[in-house]
Each structure stands twice: as structure tokens, then as C-alpha cells.
């Protein structure tokens, strides 16, 4: 007796691996199951590789600097007038919102938000890679991009820096522009710019894509959408202050006059280190360049990615400082280019690249628990505890130098808007070996400085010069007679803690 045949065909079960050649699974589409697997993979890998964020107090000085700005904002202070930096307002506001939501100023809280930014970046890249190159590229770019964000020294790769919060907006700008959404793309570029000024470089690929789609009309829509959020931010934070601190007041910081043999050496070392740490997303660059005119699955060549690379390279070089976290801006375009090239490569090449990427990611993650290649954090806990115990919550303190950890750990408000006086007042910038003479400092800086001291005379002054922390000996108080006279007239030396001279106000 014959066995009856089923009335309907049974769909075949997909058994292909995401790393198999294109076409192995018969479709480049992404169903719910694929999406769930992708999200679970990206979240799990990000959490694993960035786990040191939950165990290390401070990775670099940018974190407590931002945390101090956030504390000022939370206590009703005015960004730029009471907690200035040469950066746009989005990231300190994000810190403030995170602290308010969690009820703590511990830095692990904002690092969790940074993890979410990495996840969003990877998922947006995966969506774009699937549309351009297929399902295989989707998985590749997700893994490669997550690993590349930690493939740096821990102080750069694990910290909640400006660049890590900028990345999702830069990727969103290209994703939207590629889908003929110039208004959304312009808004995304604006948000990237409000995270860090170099986000404006994303206008290069966005304008190109808008021009290809709609000509001058598309470029106009993208530009208008870019300008509106910046204008709104100027209204909220004050046009004069925002323009000064994000554009006009950066002359000494980004000027070409700061170029030197030290800068050339720093560029060579940091660029070589980044390239060596990111071979998985860079070894296919020659092939990507040869195929740059090749049309992707969505009908466009990858010209926008090369414009993205150009803008990111310029962004890294601006200011001639070449800190490791600046190179994070290069990760998304190179990860996409790598995924595109690997989508056409052999399975052996793909699996070797992924294996190398994951192995290096685990090594960099492990290093995050103990490795400090640029030197450990300065001592700040004892002096912070002293200031906290000997002041009231409404008292202000003043730290001469670049140790924002003291303000953040003591939970006391800076007496002036200059959280890092050695840099913002004295011009003793990180990544430099020279300090300009006092006569070359913008007079507006000094006017605001002494106006702030008169308005909020600090109970304690902490001079970090004797410790030599972060180049403090290049800008001692004695080099600035008016500041030294202010301290001598109103304060007396009380004690020395952790190598810092602590002055208390007379009477």
C-alpha cells in the first residue's frame, strides 16, 4: 500500500551559516528570527567586550570632566557659563540625564549608555550592509564594528567619550540619505555635530547622496534640516557662549602653529597602532578601492563611503592631537567597506577574519581591567574626601590644573567655568609639550575667569603644580602673577594632600 503524499509542500529548513557565500541560503532578506539573532549577538558581544566598564572607576580625564559638567547642570547650573568646555552640549547633557535617572554619579552608568550607542551603531551598520551587499555582510559588519570600538588602549576604547555617542548619528545619516531621506539625514548630522564638532564632516556623504537623488533640492533639504537643530541649541544654551566655545574659542587648540616634531611622532605612533589593532577591518581596503565604482545591490556605488572615510580622516587630524578615541570615527565606514569586500570573498577568508577579530577583541577587553599604557589615573580620592568633608554642598572649590576627578569625586561645584584650568585658561593642552605665554591667552578667558572668582569665591584652592600631574609644572601659578596675587591675598596654605597644595580662604 503506498504512502499518501502531503497535500502541501513543506518549506525547507535553512541550514546555512551567516558566513557561507552569498546565495547559500537562497535569500538576503531578514525575518524576525534573523533579526532576533542579530540583536542578541550584538548585545551579548558588546556587553562581553565592554564589561570592564563596570569595574574601573575612571578610564581617562574626559569622563570626570563630563561628569563635573553634568553635576553643575543637575544642580541648576548653566552649561558654558558655569561649566565650559570646547565641545557641543549633547554629551554633557546626556551625562546629566543619566545621573538624574539612575540617582548616582558613578561612571559605569554612562558607560552602559555608551554600550547602547555601540549596539545602535552596529545594528544600523548591519541594516545598511544587508541592503548594499546581502545577508552575509550584515553579520560581518555587526561583529567587526563592535570589536573595532574596543580595539584601542582601554583609556580610549572603554571610556564613555564624545566619539562613542556620535557614532550612531553618523551611521544614521548615511542610512537615511541612502534611502532618499535628506531631512532625516540632515537631522542626524546635526545630532552628530552636537555630540562633537567633527560630526559636521558627515555632510560630505549626505550631500553627495542627496545630490544623486534630488539634485540641489535634496541638498537644500539636508542643509536646512542640519541647520535647524543647531539654531535651536544656540537659543537654549546662548548663541554667544555656544559659538565661542565650539568654534571661535578653539583657535589655540586646533591651530596649525601647534605642529611640531612631537606631533608628527604622535601621529605616526597612534596611526600605526590603530592600523595594527584593526587589521580585520582594514586588510580588504585595497580590494574595496579597486571595486569602488562597482554598483551595490541597491543600485548605487560606494562613493559615499569613501567620502565618509575622507571626512573621518580630516576629523581625526583636526587639532593635530591624534588621541586614540579620535580614531573611532573611522570605524563605521571601514567596517562597511570590509563587509562589502568579504561578502564576495571565500568562506575561509571570512572565517579567518572573524576569528582574528574576536580573538583581538577578547584580548583588548581583558586588558581593560588592568592595562594603563598612558599612565594611571592621578591620585584624587584623599583630597576629594577632604574637600567633601570640610565644605558644605553649596560651597565651591577651585582646582588649578587638569584633575577634574577632584570636582567629580568631591561632588563640589567648580568656582569658575574652567574645570581644567591648565588647558582652558593657561593653554597647557593635553598632547602638547609647550605652553603659550600668558600674553597670548585670549583676554576674554581672563575676564570670565576673574568674574567667576568674584561671583563664587571658593572656600578651598587646590594647586596641582607640585605633583606635576598632566604637565602641571608647565603652568605653575607663579607664571600667572594676577592669579598668584589673588591666591596670596585671600588664602593661606593649609596642608598638602597627595602632592597637591591645599589653600583655605582667610577668615
Q: Would you kindly provide a written description of the structure presented here, covering whatever features stand out?
A:
α5 (135-148) packs antiparallel against α16 and α9 crosses α15. 56% of the residues lie in helices and 5% in strands. The chain is globular. β4 (491-497) and β5 (500-505) form a beta hairpin. By secondary structure, it is mainly alpha-helical. A five-stranded mixed β-sheet has the order 2-1-3-5-4. The longest helix has 35 residues, at 203-237. It has 22 helices and five strands. It has helices spanning 32-49, 62-74, 90-102, 108-133, 135-148, 154-157, 162-178, 182-195, 203-237, 239-246, 251-254, 261-277, 279-282, 285-290, 303-317, 331-342, 347-367, 381-389, 405-410, 421-424, 443-455, 481-490; strands at residues 396-400, 413-414, 460-463, 491-497, 500-505. It has two domains: 32-367, no CATH class; 381-505, no CATH class.
Stretches where pLDDT is under 50 for at least 5 consecutive residues are: 1-16, 21-27
Average pLDDT rating: 90
The side-by-side strand order for the widest beta sheet comes to 2-1-3-5-4
**What fraction of residues sit in β-strands?**
under 5%
Helix content: 55-70%
Q: Spell out the helices and strands N to C.
A: HHHHHHHHHHHHHHHHHHEHEHHEHEE
Number of strands: 5
Structural class: mainly alpha
State the assembly state of the protein chains: single chain
What's the Cα radius of gyration? Answer: 25 Å
Sheet of most strands: 5 strands, mixed
Amino acid at each position: 500500500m503506498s504512502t499518501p503524499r502531503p497535500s502541501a509542500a513543506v518549506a525547507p529548513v535553512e541550514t546555512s551559516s551567516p558566513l557561507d557565500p552569498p546565495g547559500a541560503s537562497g535569500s538576503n532578506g531578514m525575518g524576525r528570527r534573523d533579526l532576533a539573532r542579530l540583536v542578541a549577538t550584538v548585545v551579548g558581544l558588546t556587553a562581553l567586550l565592554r564589561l570592564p566598564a563596570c569595574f574601573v572607576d575612571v578610564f581617562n580625564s574626559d569622563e570626570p570632566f563630563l561628569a563635573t559638567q553634568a553635576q553643575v547642570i543637575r544642580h541648576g547650573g548653566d552649561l558654558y557659563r558655569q561649566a565650559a568646555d570646547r565641545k557641543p552640549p549633547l554629551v554633557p547633557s546626556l551625562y546629566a540625564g543619566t545621573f538624574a535617572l539612575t540617582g548616582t554619579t558613578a561612571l559605569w552608568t554612562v558607560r552602559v549608555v555608551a554600550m547602547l550607542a555601540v549596539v545602535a551603531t552596529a545594528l544600523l551598520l548591519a541594516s545598511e550592509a544587508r541592503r548594499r551587499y546581502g545577508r552575509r555582510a550584515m553579520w560581518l559588519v555587526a561583529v567587526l564594528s563592535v570589536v573595532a570600538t574596543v580595539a584601542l588602549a582601554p583609556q580610549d576604547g572603554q571610556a564613555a567619550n564624545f566619539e562613542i555617542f556620535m557614532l550612531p548619528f553618523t551611521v544614521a545619516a548615511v542610512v537615511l540619505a541612502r534611502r532618499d531621506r535628506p531631512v532625516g539625514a540632515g537631522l542626524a548630522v546635526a545630532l552628530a555635530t552636537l555630540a562633537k564638532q567633527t560630526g559636521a564632516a558627515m555632510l560630505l556623504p549626505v550631500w553627495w547622496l542627496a545630490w544623486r537623488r534630488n539634485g540641489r533640492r535634496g541638498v537644500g533639504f539636508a542643509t536646512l534640516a542640519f541647520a535647524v537643530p543647531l539654531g535651536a541649541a544656540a537659543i537654549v544654551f546662548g548663541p554667544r557662549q555656544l559659538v565661542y566655545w565650539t568654534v571661535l574659542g578653539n583657535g589655540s587648540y586646533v591651530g596649525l602653529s601647534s605642529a611640531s616634531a612631537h606631533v608628527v611622532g604622535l601621529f605616526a605612533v597612534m596611526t600605526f597602532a590603530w592600523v595594527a589593532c584593526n587589521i580585520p577591518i582594514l586588510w580588504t581596503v585595497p580590494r574595496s578601492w579597486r571595486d569602488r565604482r562597482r554598483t551595490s545591490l541597491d543600485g548605487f556605488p560606494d562613493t559615499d563611503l569613501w567620502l565618509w572615510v575622507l571626512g573621518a580622516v580630516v576629523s581625526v587630524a583636526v587639532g593635530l592631537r591624534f588621541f586614540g578615541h579620535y580614531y573611532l570615527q573611522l570605524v563605521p565606514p571601514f567596517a562597511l567597506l570590509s563587509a562589502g569586500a568579504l561578502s564576495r570573498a571565500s568562506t575561509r577568508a571570512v572565517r579567518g577574519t572573524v576569528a582574528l577579530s574576536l580573538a583581538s577583541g577578547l584580548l583588548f577587553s581583558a586588558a581593560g581591567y588592568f592595562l594603563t599604557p598612558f599612565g594611571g589615573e592621578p591620585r584624587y580620592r584623599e583630597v576629594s574626601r577632604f574637600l567633601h568633608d570640610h565644605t558644605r554642598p553649596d560651597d565651591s572649590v577651585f582646582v588649578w590644573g587638569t584633575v577634574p576627578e577632584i570636582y567629580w569625586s568631591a561632588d563640589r561645584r567648580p568656582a569658575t567655568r574652567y574645570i581644567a584650568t591648565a588647558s582652558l585658561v593657561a593653554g597647557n593642552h593635553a598632547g602638547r609639550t609647550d605652553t603659550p605665554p600668558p600674553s597670548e591667552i585670549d583676554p576674554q578667558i581672563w575676564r570670565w575667569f576673574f568674574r567667576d572668582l568674584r561671583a563664587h569665591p571658593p572656600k578651598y584652592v587646590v594647586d596641582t603644580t607640585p605633583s606635576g600631574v598632566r604637565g602641571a609644572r608647565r603652568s605653575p601659578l607663579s607664571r600667572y602673577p594676577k592669579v598668584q596675587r589673588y591666591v596670596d591675598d585671600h588664602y593661606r596654605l593649609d596642608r598638602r594632600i597627595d602632592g597637591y597644595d591645599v589653600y583655605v580662604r582667610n577668615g
